[in-house]
Give the backbone structure.
Amino acid sequence: MSPASSLIDRVRGAIAIATERLAGTPAVPQLEALTARLDEPLRVAIAGRVKAGKSTLLNALVGQELAPTDAGECTRIVTWYRDGVTYQVTLHPLEGEPFQVPFSQNGGAIKVDLAGYRPEHVDRLVVDWPSTSLRAMTLIDTPGIASLSADLSERAVAFLTGSDDEPTASDAVLYLMHHLHSTDVRFLDAFRDQEVARPAPINTVAVLSRADEIGAGKLDAMTTAARIAGRYRLDPKVRALCQTVIPVAALLAQSAETLEEEEFKAFSRIAAGEPPDLNGLLLSVDRFLKVEVGTIQLGPRTREHLLRRFGLFGVRLAVSLIVEKKVATSDALARELVNQSGLLELRGVLLSQFASRRDVLKARATLLSLHRMIQAADAPAELAAEVERIEAGAHEFAEIRLLNAHRSGAITFRAAEGEEVDRLLGAAGTSVAARLGLPPDAPAADVRSAIQQAASRWRARAENPLSSPEIVAASNVLVRTCEGMLAALSSFASSD
């Protein structure tokens, strides 16, 4: 049994005890919902300021155009997208029981009939949609923060950050931004908390979601965005707010995932033009829409369609790939556009940072909710004590606390130690190889040696009389992490 699984089992046991002690009270249905939450896919909320590209990125991650990207009513409502056995939409009003509502989809985003409800009277919409992309994670689209509507903005922030009375419903957050705005800093700072049971940097990833615009839509725009994201990752202020920053051209990613054959043919017609005509046409948005070029036969509606779907950067990139003969089919073009959009890197981070920590993130979110229920129900003191024992005794939570403290500057290590601390605590991935900075296929002997060397270094650091009490405690956590990896390695070897 893995440590994370045993942690889930301990949380499940605490819920069972609470259910027994609180039998016959209104808390029982809530406790049953908590148990169900432990078995659900990870809940990942997509947050950001208005027009940050949240719905567009969600569509790219799903690989289908589901979420509306215009300024319609549904963009003002928290909307859950989860894998389902059938296609349906359920409306959860602020008052009353949830019920299914009609919806339609005709070659684009889902259009939902709110059955006469105003958006401000709807708590959330839940879209069940059979999708392999949604099996590991339920994606939650949220209204924009810093909206001109104060009520809308407040509801979005309340959902994402939770409160003393109502913990957040999400397990992790993708926070979208263009540049690091003061509004972004305020939100992320509110979302951060040093307590293990509250939202923290370990479950927050920042995304430069319109990365191609940072470089003015030039062919090297993503390279420019990558440099900016790299600077953000090294910024102590940003490191204290989220675990990493990833550049993504969200519009390009969404459209590449749903590229149509006719769009490929249109790009090919543009690429067939004479170089002077081609360069002139792609110089700006205005020229692309208005300039008529003899060697490039493309109607105005097709131009508008391509620009709306891919943006100027996407059009330039697609044409360049065809001209340079790097792609020859629509499937090849779609793959290359997705690759250059940054979407694959983001998916990799979601798998290594969120999916691999699923049980830990689920356990910490559930413990917060359980703690609030116990307080509200005036339950026996033994229940609160059991929750506290789980929180204090779980090494996974000790790792999260230490990583948060390190990222925020509350604990300062030597300059040469900082990178190893992050890595050992799983900031670059939770696999044994990732924690050690080794390739995934490293020989077992090399892995064992690296673990033993790391354990020796941090054991010596803990025993150094010049180490502060905080460094001693932190070093002991890292030693325990190494011991856990060594035990896992031995267990794996014996099972072979």
User: Anything to note?
Assistant: The first strand starts at residue 42 and ends at 48. The chain has a mean pLDDT of 83. The chain has 22 helices and eleven strands.
